Please model this.
Amino acid sequence: MLQYRLWQRVLIIGAVVLAALFAVPNFFSKEEVAAWPGFTPKSRIALGLDLQGGSYLLLGVDTDKVITDRLTNLRQEIQRQMRPQGSRARVALEALPALDAATDSITLRVREAAQVEEAAKRVRDLTRGGGLIGAGVRPYDVTVEGNRITVTLHPEARRAYGQEALADSIEVVRRRIDPAGNKEVLIQAQGEDRIVVQAPGDNDPEALKQIINRTGQLSFHRVDTSVSPSEAQAGVLPPGRMVTPIAESEGGGQLVLFEEAEVTGDMVESASAGVNDDGGGFQINFSFDQRGARRFADYTREHVGELFAIVLDNEVISYPRIQTPITGGSGRITGNFAPDEAQRIATLIRSGALPAPLTTLDQRSVGPGLGADSVRAGGVASLIALGLVILFMLLTYGRFGLFANLALLANLVLIFGVLSILGSTLTLPGIAGIVLTIGMAVDANVLIYERIREELANGKTPIAATEIGFSKAFSAIADSNITTLIAAWIMLMLGAGPVRGFALTLAVGVITSVFSAIVITRLIAGSYLLAKRPKTITL
Model:
């Protein structure tokens, strides 16, 4: 039936009006939109790198380093498990557990045969704490041959840890570039070990790299006062020790620290800069998660009166003496920090450490002038396409061509409204997708009108022919547009950067064009036919 009920007409017109309200802010500056009343829509379509200018980075993630670090930490944990703990006796080893990065394995040799079973049990209990990978696969395989215990990383676990490192790296990069979450920055994975960063409006890729590559690696270490830094430099350095420089804000120099961290930065839950409680300068306040709070409390309880070092990016930023056990799960880093330095350190700690080193594979800067030219060219192309389509429909279908053109304009309003609601980023390929949908938008109208022509030629009345045209052409319209949507969905899921921009506008355009052709054109044509009831129509 051509006739819509009142509530249906109100709903259709309301959808177009609502889309228009969301589309309007795109035609005004940010300052003008910000001055509008609070109840008005203010979301805008963001311009992509190729339209606004900015920086582009392609980063490689060293997932092999992630695996090596995991195995190194596991080796330290295995060594710790062999020490006496409570009622558990010490398991004597012939040597420190050996790590073989080539085979992703750790080997330890138990000195006494009677302790092999106990050592294997402790290792298995430790490795089972990693949960399951994939379809019930444990991340580590533990084998026992004589007095030798071998822990091998499962290939599926290596793949899963690599993917986890990639996702974590993306999140850390996002927090460093856009800590407030209000910038129009595109950060996404490309392949298994690459990250694409697009920062519209930022034309300094080198500065962007410096922000990203701040490691933010925080750790707490025991200070070894039995060896002086000068002795360590002369070669007198016990195993498991390292020489670490002291920050200039703390007077400079060096300290000898135990390599094994007592608490690591991943156990820090929050960090913020604040005024020093003791007066003078600024400090960094931090709090641990449950695991970190427990380990920090145990350490400070056992080492009252000793120095401990707080290390950030391989530099000692503070080395206070433990006066009393710290059991509250929080602490502060005091020092002669300037306000901006304290804020920078707090941001680094809060954003976390990069799980893997990043290398720059490609970088480039796009000037705003080129982007403006692209916007201008895209606008001209869209207007030409729109004008030609409107002219073709008028010349071919007359009055019904006008109905289709009105629906086409409504379709453009819907496209911009939906993209604004989604907060989408418009790229040059995205403009190409809009231009394409302008042409595709009338395809459904052409199918409907040609079917109406056939029914008119068979002697049907204009109203009957139009009803049949809209109902019978629906299956062909649905089939053609569903296949296009499938292709757009595949590009959205598997594509990156420009491909996704094109796919998004194409998908939105296909959905809105079907709506405008089937619903809006039918509303306009039906209202005309039912009001005028012409005996003949020209198509």
In short: The mean pLDDT is 83. Residues 397 and 539 are 5 Å apart (CA to CA). The first helix runs from residue 6 to 23.
